[in-house]
Amino acid sequence: MEWEISQVDPKKMIQTGSFRINPDGSQSVREVPMARSEGHLLEVLEEVCEKMKDYGEHADPSTNRKTYVRVTSRDGKAMDLSETTLDSRVSSSLKYACETIVEQHEDELIEFFAHETDNVKDKLCSKRTDLCDHALQIPHDEL
Question: Which of 23, 30, 59, 109 is the most buried (most CB within 10 A)?
């Protein structure tokens, strides 16, 4: 989600609020950055789980611990996919897990990505949703 947000021009703004005219003739409209607007974040959330096809399972050769890593580069550069399993079952289970998280925590996701800019991944993962009890020891680069 952070990557998708970063791709929006930071100068792009949208108007939010009420478009009704108040008794004094004014409107309660304000401009907010498009990238972190609720509408844009909802759009990103609708598409984020489809991107699980871009991930595979990586087994650390020394510990045999399994993690999920991107297998397709966003910038077209070659990636080291040694020790990485590309399997439709892995991407399907990741997609299902993503959809479950989005469904159960949509409000928190919108709230955090709309207002927080520092350590969003760790705050959301460990302090707000308890999805990862070890969130502070392992970076969540792809959240």
Answer: 109
Question: How crowded is residue 28: how many other Cβ atoms within 10 Å of its Cβ?
Answer: 11
Query: In terms of Cα–Cα distance, which of 86, 66, 47, 75 is closest to 138?
Result: 66
Query: For 80-105, what is the mean pLDDT?
Result: 87
Instruction: Judge contact between 55 and 71, C-beta under 8 A.
Output: yes
Give me the percent of the chain exceeding a pLDDT of 70.
85
Q: At what angle do helices 38-48 and 88-115 cross, to 10 degrees?
A: 170
What tens digit of pLDDT does each residue of 4-57 get?
999 999 899 988 776 777 788 777 777 888 988 989 999 999 999 999 988 888
Tell me the chain's radius of gyration from C-alpha atoms: 19
**Nearest Cα to Cα of residue 86 among 98, 68, 73:** 68
